């Protein structure tokens, strides 16, 4: 692994979503100085969206895929 343990932080948050289902979220933090070692920094043009957004229908179709289906406990 390119990072030393003291250069990163991984955390886990657990809870329930609005429907009452259990969920878990991982958070990964890496120090800015470490990322600069690899040539990654906020001034890079690719650190922000550079291309136009996908068509609106793409978001609609993605939202439909995320909807829970009847008879399934977890999507």
The 3D shape can be described as: flat
> How many structural domains can be distinguished in the coordinates?
1
Low-confidence stretches: none
Over the alpha carbons, how many angstroms does the gyration radius reach? 18 Å
- The H/E string reads EEHH
Number of helices: 2
Mean pLDDT: 78
Overall strand count: 2
Please supply descriptive tags for the structure shown above.
two-stranded antiparallel sheet, 2 helices, alpha+beta, 23% helix, 75 residues, 24% strand
Q: Can you walk through the features of this model?
A:
Strands 1-2 form a two-stranded antiparallel ribbon. The protein has one domain (5-66). It is α+β, with helices and mostly antiparallel strands and 75 residues long. Strand 1 and strand 2 form a beta hairpin. It has helices at residues 32-37, 56-66; strands at residues 8-16, 22-30. The mean pLDDT is 78. It has two helices and two strands, in the order ββαα.
SSE topology sketch:
Blueprint: E1 8-16, E2 22-30, H1 32-37, H2 56-66
What does this entry show, briefly?
The chain is α+β, with helices and mostly antiparallel strands and 75 residues long. The chain has 2 helices and 2 strands; from the N terminus they run ββαα.
């Amino acid at each position: 692994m390119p990072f030393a343990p003291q250069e990163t932080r991984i955390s886990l948050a657990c809870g329930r979503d609005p429907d009452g289902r259990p969920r878990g979220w991982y958070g990964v933090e890496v120090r800015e100085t470490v990322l600069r070692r690899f040539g990654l920094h906020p001034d890079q043009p690719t650190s922000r969206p550079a291309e136009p957004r996908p068509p609106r229908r793409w978001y609609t179709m993605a939202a439909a895929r995320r909807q829970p289906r009847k008879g399934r406990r977890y999507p």
